[in-house]
Specification:
By secondary structure, this protein is an alpha+beta fold. The protein has two domains: 1-30; 34-281, q2cbj1_9rhob like domain (Jelly Rolls, Sandwich), CATH 2.60.120.620. The protein is built from eight helices and 13 strands.
Amino acid sequence: MGEFSATVSVVHLVLRATMVHTYLLDFFTIFAMLTPEQLDHFSTKGYLILPALADSGYCASVIALAEQALLADTAPIEYEADTRYPGAPASRDAEGGRTARRLLQAVARSPLLADWAKGESLASALKQLLGAGARLSQVHHNCIMTKQPRFSSLTGWHRDSRYWQFARAELVSAWLALRNETLENGCLLVLPGSHLWTITPDQLDAALFLRADSMQNQRLLAQAVSVPLRQGDVLLFHSNLFHAAGCNQTAQTKLSMVLTYRAADNLPVPGSRSASLDEIEI
């Protein structure tokens, strides 16, 4: 009888441990709480993928909203010609010059976008990286990227923080793949750990992109990795992480929603463009 009771107790303990483990896994999945391993990966590599953070139904709704805005040419929009990047049309009047690159001011376009940008599934992970009181910038990113076939441009190696003005270059961007992202349609490329690198002025061109003709940079660029994403995946990346992207060589527009967040104590510089619009606490 004693042996039977001991066996039952052990079984109960195993079942309870299994239930607790399952509960914790569900909790981390539902609220996108980051594990110590994920936090370490972001800290050392400068980026992290959160798989399937948005479901296919939500992505389809955002795609429909974006396609309607593209069809109606609903401002504000950045066009490929505005960037002057390699492969972009020379002007808005040139062939393909009205090819939209970004639907700007995403959170102001629809509660569908604003609610997700502030929602707990994303906010819980961001708060682990940035702390309580983290804020969404309405100036930087805050867009739906619309990388279209034929006239999409190359984006060189850059840090987003090069033109941003905050107390510290330590913001986090969240990139939601609304469709699958591959090398063929221009997924992001990153230099892992580059958010920690010290780069000298001679390694950069006038627009603060890494110079491809620098021998020192060529050794760095050899470390590049692609970041393919499945629909609904979110890529979190540090504002000082060097990243780039190729052209869309497929027949379908690649759509991504991109948002940027800062810590409560990482204030925008007063009077700068970074401080020109109200921020949203998440």
